[in-house]
Amino acid sequence: MGRWTPNARGRLETAALELYDEHGYDQVTVTQIAECAGLTERTYFRHFADKREVLFGGSQLLQDHLVQRVTDAPPSAAPWAAVTAALSTAGDVFPADRESSRQRQRVITAHPGLLERELIKLAGLSEALADALQRRGVPARTARLTADTAIAVFKAAFTRWLEAPEQPDFATLVRQASEEQRAVVGG
Protein backbone atom coordinates (compact mmCIF):
# COMPACT_ATOMS: atom_id res chain seq x y z
CA MET A 1 0.00 0.00 0.00
CA GLY A 2 1.42 3.33 -1.03
CA ARG A 3 1.83 5.88 1.70
CA TRP A 4 1.46 8.99 -0.46
CA THR A 5 -1.05 7.88 -3.04
CA PRO A 6 -3.14 10.57 -4.74
CA ASN A 7 -6.80 11.20 -3.88
CA ALA A 8 -6.83 8.96 -0.83
CA ARG A 9 -10.00 10.61 0.49
CA GLY A 10 -11.90 10.05 -2.74
CA ARG A 11 -10.72 6.46 -2.99
CA LEU A 12 -11.86 5.79 0.57
CA GLU A 13 -15.28 7.32 -0.15
CA THR A 14 -15.67 5.23 -3.29
CA ALA A 15 -14.55 2.03 -1.59
CA ALA A 16 -16.88 2.62 1.37
CA LEU A 17 -19.88 3.23 -0.89
CA GLU A 18 -19.21 0.10 -2.91
CA LEU A 19 -18.72 -2.07 0.16
CA TYR A 20 -21.68 -0.62 2.08
CA ASP A 21 -23.94 -1.02 -0.94
CA GLU A 22 -22.80 -4.59 -1.60
CA HIS A 23 -22.55 -5.97 1.94
CA GLY A 24 -24.55 -3.59 4.10
CA TYR A 25 -23.20 -0.90 6.38
CA ASP A 26 -23.04 -3.07 9.51
CA GLN A 27 -21.05 -5.81 7.78
CA VAL A 28 -18.17 -3.58 6.62
CA THR A 29 -15.16 -2.57 8.71
CA VAL A 30 -12.83 0.38 8.37
CA THR A 31 -10.03 -2.08 7.68
CA GLN A 32 -11.96 -3.50 4.72
CA ILE A 33 -12.62 -0.01 3.35
CA ALA A 34 -8.95 0.93 3.62
CA GLU A 35 -7.82 -2.33 2.00
CA CYS A 36 -10.33 -1.94 -0.84
CA ALA A 37 -8.96 1.57 -1.45
CA GLY A 38 -5.39 0.28 -1.35
CA LEU A 39 -4.63 2.29 1.79
CA THR A 40 -4.06 1.71 5.50
CA GLU A 41 -6.50 2.01 8.36
CA ARG A 42 -4.34 4.81 9.70
CA THR A 43 -4.82 6.73 6.46
CA TYR A 44 -8.57 6.23 6.79
CA PHE A 45 -8.60 7.84 10.22
CA ARG A 46 -6.53 10.78 8.97
CA HIS A 47 -9.47 11.61 6.70
CA PHE A 48 -12.53 10.46 8.65
CA ALA A 49 -13.36 10.36 12.35
CA ASP A 50 -15.40 7.17 12.15
CA LYS A 51 -17.03 4.63 9.87
CA ARG A 52 -20.12 6.79 9.30
CA GLU A 53 -18.34 10.01 8.45
CA VAL A 54 -17.04 8.68 5.13
CA LEU A 55 -20.61 9.08 3.83
CA PHE A 56 -20.84 12.71 4.94
CA GLY A 57 -17.54 14.11 3.75
CA GLY A 58 -19.22 16.64 1.46
CA SER A 59 -21.43 18.08 4.18
CA GLN A 60 -18.95 20.74 5.26
CA LEU A 61 -18.25 21.72 1.66
CA LEU A 62 -21.99 22.16 1.03
CA GLN A 63 -22.43 24.13 4.25
CA ASP A 64 -19.51 26.43 3.49
CA HIS A 65 -20.80 26.97 -0.04
CA LEU A 66 -24.35 27.84 1.04
CA VAL A 67 -23.28 30.09 3.91
CA GLN A 68 -20.97 31.99 1.58
CA ARG A 69 -23.81 32.48 -0.93
CA VAL A 70 -26.09 33.83 1.82
CA THR A 71 -23.29 36.11 2.99
CA ASP A 72 -22.69 37.34 -0.57
CA ALA A 73 -26.38 38.03 -1.29
CA PRO A 74 -27.19 41.68 -2.00
CA PRO A 75 -27.90 43.62 1.20
CA SER A 76 -31.39 44.38 -0.09
CA ALA A 77 -32.27 40.66 -0.46
CA ALA A 78 -35.02 39.46 1.85
CA PRO A 79 -34.08 36.47 4.05
CA TRP A 80 -36.03 33.95 1.97
CA ALA A 81 -34.64 35.33 -1.30
CA ALA A 82 -31.07 35.12 0.03
CA VAL A 83 -31.49 31.54 1.23
CA THR A 84 -33.29 30.19 -1.84
CA ALA A 85 -30.77 31.85 -4.13
CA ALA A 86 -28.05 30.07 -2.14
CA LEU A 87 -29.89 26.73 -2.29
CA SER A 88 -30.23 27.12 -6.04
CA THR A 89 -26.45 26.87 -6.33
CA ALA A 90 -26.12 23.72 -4.21
CA GLY A 91 -25.88 21.59 -7.35
CA ASP A 92 -22.49 23.20 -7.95
CA VAL A 93 -20.99 21.12 -5.12
CA PHE A 94 -22.76 17.81 -5.80
CA PRO A 95 -20.69 15.02 -7.33
CA ALA A 96 -20.73 14.99 -11.12
CA ASP A 97 -21.64 11.31 -10.97
CA ARG A 98 -25.24 11.34 -9.75
CA GLU A 99 -25.23 7.55 -9.37
CA SER A 100 -22.77 7.84 -6.48
CA SER A 101 -25.22 10.21 -4.76
CA ARG A 102 -28.02 7.73 -5.32
CA GLN A 103 -25.86 4.91 -3.98
CA ARG A 104 -24.99 7.00 -0.92
CA GLN A 105 -28.64 7.74 -0.26
CA ARG A 106 -29.56 4.04 -0.56
CA VAL A 107 -26.96 3.17 2.06
CA ILE A 108 -28.13 5.94 4.40
CA THR A 109 -31.81 5.11 3.98
CA ALA A 110 -31.17 1.45 4.82
CA HIS A 111 -29.60 2.23 8.21
CA PRO A 112 -31.34 4.13 11.05
CA GLY A 113 -28.06 5.30 12.56
CA LEU A 114 -27.01 6.83 9.27
CA LEU A 115 -30.40 8.51 8.87
CA GLU A 116 -29.89 10.01 12.30
CA ARG A 117 -26.44 11.28 11.29
CA GLU A 118 -27.90 12.83 8.14
CA LEU A 119 -30.55 14.63 10.19
CA ILE A 120 -27.85 15.93 12.52
CA LYS A 121 -25.88 17.22 9.54
CA LEU A 122 -29.02 18.94 8.16
CA ALA A 123 -29.69 20.50 11.56
CA GLY A 124 -26.13 21.83 11.55
CA LEU A 125 -26.68 23.24 8.07
CA SER A 126 -29.85 24.94 9.25
CA GLU A 127 -27.99 26.45 12.20
CA ALA A 128 -25.22 27.72 9.92
CA LEU A 129 -27.74 29.30 7.55
CA ALA A 130 -29.57 30.93 10.47
CA ASP A 131 -26.27 32.32 11.76
CA ALA A 132 -25.47 33.72 8.31
CA LEU A 133 -28.87 35.40 8.17
CA GLN A 134 -28.40 36.86 11.64
CA ARG A 135 -25.07 38.33 10.56
CA ARG A 136 -27.07 40.05 7.81
CA GLY A 137 -29.23 41.65 10.49
CA VAL A 138 -32.17 39.24 10.39
CA PRO A 139 -33.77 38.73 13.84
CA ALA A 140 -32.91 35.36 15.40
CA ARG A 141 -36.42 33.85 15.31
CA THR A 142 -36.95 34.90 11.71
CA ALA A 143 -33.52 33.58 10.76
CA ARG A 144 -34.22 30.21 12.44
CA LEU A 145 -37.65 29.83 10.76
CA THR A 146 -36.21 30.79 7.38
CA ALA A 147 -33.31 28.35 7.71
CA ASP A 148 -35.49 25.47 8.91
CA THR A 149 -37.94 26.04 6.06
CA ALA A 150 -35.04 26.20 3.62
CA ILE A 151 -33.87 22.78 4.78
CA ALA A 152 -37.31 21.33 4.01
CA VAL A 153 -37.12 22.86 0.52
CA PHE A 154 -33.57 21.57 0.07
CA LYS A 155 -34.57 18.03 1.07
CA ALA A 156 -37.50 18.03 -1.38
CA ALA A 157 -35.33 19.34 -4.21
CA PHE A 158 -32.51 16.91 -3.44
CA THR A 159 -34.89 13.93 -3.37
CA ARG A 160 -36.24 14.92 -6.78
CA TRP A 161 -32.72 15.43 -8.08
CA LEU A 162 -31.82 11.88 -7.03
CA GLU A 163 -34.99 10.37 -8.49
CA ALA A 164 -34.98 12.20 -11.84
CA PRO A 165 -33.71 10.07 -14.74
CA GLU A 166 -32.64 13.18 -16.66
CA GLN A 167 -30.29 15.90 -15.47
CA PRO A 168 -32.62 18.60 -14.12
CA ASP A 169 -31.10 21.87 -13.07
CA PHE A 170 -30.98 21.92 -9.26
CA ALA A 171 -32.07 25.58 -9.26
CA THR A 172 -35.29 24.58 -11.04
CA LEU A 173 -35.95 21.88 -8.45
CA VAL A 174 -35.40 24.38 -5.63
CA ARG A 175 -37.79 26.83 -7.27
CA GLN A 176 -40.45 24.11 -7.68
CA ALA A 177 -40.08 22.93 -4.08
CA SER A 178 -40.21 26.52 -2.84
CA GLU A 179 -43.42 27.16 -4.82
CA GLU A 180 -44.96 24.01 -3.36
CA GLN A 181 -43.93 25.08 0.13
CA ARG A 182 -45.57 28.45 -0.46
CA ALA A 183 -48.76 26.73 -1.64
CA VAL A 184 -48.79 24.50 1.45
CA VAL A 185 -48.73 27.47 3.82
CA GLY A 186 -51.25 29.36 1.71
CA GLY A 187 -49.12 32.26 0.58
What does this structure look like?
It is a single chain. α1 (8-23) packs across α2 and α8 packs across α9 (170-184). This protein has 187 residues and is an all-alpha fold. The longest helix is centred in the middle third of the chain and has 24 residues, at 112-135. The chain contains nine helices and no strands. The relative contact order is 0.11. It has helices spanning 8-23, 30-36, 41-47, 59-72, 79-88, 98-109, 112-135, 140-163, 170-184. The chain starts with 7 loop residues before the first helix and ends with a helix.
What's the quick description here?
This protein is mainly alpha-helical and 187 residues long.
List the helices and strands and how they pair.
Blueprint: H1 8-23, H2 30-36, H3 41-47, H4 59-72, H5 79-88, H6 98-109, H7 112-135, H8 140-163, H9 170-184
Helix pairs in contact: 1-2, 1-6, 4-5, 4-7, 5-8, 5-9, 7-8, 8-9
List keywords for this structure.
9 helices; 187 residues; mainly alpha
What's the total count of β strands?
0
Q: Helical amount among residues, as a percent range?
A: 55-70%
Average residue-wise pLDDT: 93
Uncertain runs are none
Provide a count of the helices: 9
Beta-strand proportion: under 5%
User: Tell me, what's the shape?
Assistant: elongated
